[in-house]
Fold each of these.
Amino acid sequence: MASVNEEILDELTRHQVYLQRLSANTVRKVIAALNRSDARLVERLLRDDITAMSRTRQEQLLRDLRRIVESAYTDATGALRIELDALGKYEAEYQLDMFRRVLPVRFETVTPAAEQILAAVSARPFQGKLLREVYSELEASAFRKVRDNIRAGIIEGRTTDQIVRDLRGTRTQGYRDGILYQNRRSTEAVVRTAVNHTANVAREYTYERNSDLVKGVRWNATLDSRTTLVCASRDGKVYDPGKGQRPPAHFNCRSSTSPVVKSWRELGLDADELPASTRASMNGQVPADLDYDGWLRRQPRAFQDEVLGEKKAALFRKGVKVDRFVDRKGREFTLDELKRREREAWAETT
Ligand SMILES: [Zn+2]
């Protein structure tokens, strides 16, 4: 029988898959705000012949563009903030809910106030920076790239159309060769990292408030071909609550954490009266490293389909091995969908 700590790791591994779907959905919403402003930017650029402009009018153009970029990033981070606030609240509820479902007896848990969780999300740095600093650097660098490209274009005698093409990219390249595309990519990295940061801080804060029960925080790397060395090397490490490293370890980091709960003895309880299986389930041990193939085989069919796609999942069930845990790309969940799926997944495994 799986111990409580094994069950927790199992459930949170599934949860992390869903969080990445949420991340994809959040990215799309935020990028939509930027796309609207890119259109405005191009429209403004095409209004006059840039090369024939006086110095004063060129500076006016850059000021206008700066305002467009600023308002775009205000919209984008506003949209992101709404998503992150909802996620932060949900994540704490989810963790406590999980304790209630997984623990063999009922423990008193402390529910942190939503405002405190959100305050912690803003106040705790990742990569040595606070979220709002990351946002403002993102905006500044987005404008700088646009400005430098226009200035260089003027000096080098490019036409307005050429300058716009450098910014927007070309259709044959799917616009991936444009400066604006680079800006969207950096935004995407910030959004993904901010989602992971929010979930991890909300979780950590919840563990800290429940340190009577939680004795450690385990680092869980998503192990696949894209895993960075730093995350792979931290996989399975257990830190004291509130101490040591926490994900995200870098931009686009997909590592997460799970709590390690105390044993009966560490809780100061005499478990001798309890049935043997209940006694054994709270042994306080840290779960061994996950074998992802074995792990995914234990998951409900619907979840396997979800992760691998139906065709690959059918092969997988016929015995084809997945030695790396590869999540299907491009899947999206809204927070409501994530909540619903998690309730369903839980119902299927119990
Ligand atoms: Zn990582």
Amino acid sequence: MTQVQCHTCHAGVASYDVIHFGSMETGYRDLCSHCFNEEVGRTGQIELEQVRFQPIDMLDAAGVKRRFHFLLLHLGDRVSLEAFELQDGERGGYQFQILDEAQADLFDLMARLVERMRRALSLRHLVDDGQRCSIADKTVRGRIDCDLGSADRVPILVIDGREVNWEQFGQMLMTFEGWQFKFEIKDPSEQV
Ligand SMILES: [Zn+2]
């Protein structure tokens, strides 16, 4: 796991809990989420609630246990709560985000996020018969990531919490050759 030293509290923190914060004028600093939130509170002279949510385990539709970590960020006029899995110490697999106004109740926010996660985990979009993976029905939900392993700038899709590269997805689509499709892109905090 990559550790980064927080500029303010000097603690070594996991890279997924670090915010690269600042501007071109003032320079950039790496802050842990706790120090980032404190600074947002101080700068905006607002009382902010800080909660460190512990990781939780949830089962997906295939009965596989998945561990979710949380990141709470106060953004001034809004608050963001993210849930994500880790792969090799970095964010990977399922990721979720919920946004609300700055004064939102954080436990209520957490409850709404978990509900959204539960709904998403109950769905399966891909079926794998051991030979090949295919689209289970006619709708696919997922996330667009960057395929760092590819020389070209192509996406890697994360569907059902697993990575599907652009070529694999193309092969899956060939089941529907001649059919039409509707492709909708949504913000990370929206429900899909
Ligand atoms: Zn810190």
